[in-house]
Amino acid sequence: MTDRLALVPERDRLDQARQLADKVAGNVGRIILGKEREIRLALTCLLARGHLLIEDVPGVGKTLLARSLAIALGLGYRRIQFTSDMLPADIIGVSVFEKEQAAFRFHEGPLFAELVLADEVNRATPKAQSALLEAMEEQQVTADGNTYDLPDPFFVIATQNPLHQIGTFPLPESQLDRFLMRIGLGYPEEALERQLLTGQDRRDLLAVLEPSLTRQEIITMQNAARHIHASEAILDYTQALVRFTRDAPQIDLGLSPRGAQALVNAARCWAMISGHTGVQPEDIKAVFTSVAGHRLRTRNDASHPDPDIAAFVLESVPVP
Fold first, then answer.
1. What mean pLDDT, rounded, does the chain reach?
2. pLDDT tens-digit readout, 14-34
């Protein structure tokens, strides 16, 4: 499959990107019913070169969403099941002494894939969780003093069980901040759940799901999103939101500069797949809760993120 975005004039590239995004969302939407917004947020996260955290109860389709995205996006996929006895070497890889060569050789771990599913990431200890920090921030890993580059694109989708469930370890702030977005899937609507009960197993449909994009097209879209215009008024609005999170008496931990950058980057990508020539206030609002919710702490419960506070911030800050 050729890079279709590279074959059209610059003025038509935006419309082409929107059509490709619609195709991906439509194909994945045949597997994950009734979650078009969440699918588009996941695609936005990838195009913004970020990583996605999905937090919800077991059995709502978190793993299936990751598998469906990997196929629809044409990306190499590996799944890592996080457990309490996992070690960093189980994720990154390990150096093994080879007698024939009389030297150590690094054997890549499951982290070396274009789309990595870190399943139930908060069931692992903080030591194992830390194996993802360098990879998610710098797209590389270090083992035995040597640095190894990870694939491009590199997209981590981590699933997380609710913190009140047995056997979970809360993700520290530094780990949470590596995720551009956090979303939940929630229970399906009643009519859609009936379709799940009476129709074909959604996992069986993966066998007929075909790639909608190529690796090169994803990279082209990632690069194109950086050039989506964000006006001074949009940047004023963004900074007003960020400033409110830092100054509001209800909030103990506000957005960092990295969080502000994540908000603008995500809004650019959402604007692109929505067919907007520039970032609009609606694009900021569309991604704000997913970008900011897991980064904010209320003073009443400063030990855990409070996604509901993000909606309060949006309501409190007027659009300029």
1. 88
2. 788 889 899 999 999 999 999
Residue 244 CA to residue 242 CA, distance in Å, equals 5
Q: How far apart, in whole angstroms, are the C-alpha atoms of residue 36 and residue 17?
A: 17
Compute the distance between CA of residue 304 and CA of residue 306 in angstroms, rounded to an integer: 6
What tokens were used for 180? 């551009």
Residue 79, beta-bridge partner list: 117
> Partners of 53 in the beta sheet?
158, 182
Residue 294: pLDDT over 60: yes
Is it true that domain 31-221 has CATH number 3.30.200.20? no
* Residue 208, both tokens: 């007929």
Q: Which residue blocks in 177-294 are alpha helix, DSSP H?
A: 190-198, 215-225, 232-247, 257-273, 281-292
For residue 292 the two structure tokens come to 């900011």
Residue 105 phi, psi dihedral angles, 5° rounding: -125, 130
Residue 9's pLDDT is: 47
| Identical topology for domains 31-221 and 228-320 | no
Helix (H) or strand (E) holding 63: helix 62-72
Cis? peptide before 58, omega within 30° of 0: no
The two three-digit tokens of residue 5, written as one number: 């975005």
User: Is the model's pLDDT at 11 over the cut of 60?
Assistant: no
Higher pLDDT residue, 125 or 154? 154
CA distances from 104 to 89, 144, 298 (A): 15, 10, 49
- Of 122, 146, 117, 125, the closest CA to residue 134 belongs to 146
C-alpha span between 114 and 135 (Å, rounded): 12
Q: What is the pTM of this model?
A: 0.89
DSSP conformational letter for 182: E
Inter-residue contact 225 to 47 (CB < 8 Å): yes
**Architecture of the structural domain at 228-320:** Orthogonal Bundle (1.10)
- Domain extent listing, the chain: 31-221, 228-320
How many angstroms separate the CA atoms of 202 and 183, rounded? 21
